[in-house]
Amino acid sequence: MNKYKLLVLSILFDGLGFVSFFIPGIGEFSDVIWAPLSAYLMTRLYKGREGKVAAVVSFIEEALPFMDIVPTFSIMWLYTYVLKSEKTITKA
């Protein structure tokens, strides 16, 4: 998948996770559904060990109340395409 399409999807999924703040009462219930779904999506978007670790972090972040503000998908995109790329360049 193109890295910029992946960025758009990451921002979209972070936005969906943030929606629960806007729906009083129902918002935290939606996290019960969104937490496992976000973990699954994370493993589909980001492969390997990093994707699995990010899925666990995403699940915990979405399951905990008031933690929805953390943009887990976008942070993973930054790690994959910015931070990890710099580490690869410096090793060469």
Per-chain topology:
Blueprint: H1 3-18, H2 27-45, H3 48-63, H4 72-91
Characterization of the model:
This protein has one domain (3-91). The chain has helices at 3-18, 27-45, 48-63, 72-91. The protein is elongated. The chain has 92 residues and is mostly helical.
Shape: elongated
Distance between the termini: 25 Å
Largest sheet: none
Number of domains: 1
Low-confidence stretches: none
Helix/strand structural class:
mainly alpha
Quaternary state, please?
Answer: single chain
Instruction: Tell me the Rg in angstroms.
Output: 14 Å
The proportion of residues forming helix, as a percent range, comes to over 70%
Task: Enumerate how many helices there are, as a single number.
Answer: 4
SS elements, strand count: 0
Could you tell me the strand content as a percent range? under 5%
Order of helices and strands: HHHH
On the 0-100 scale, what is the average pLDDT?
Answer: 86
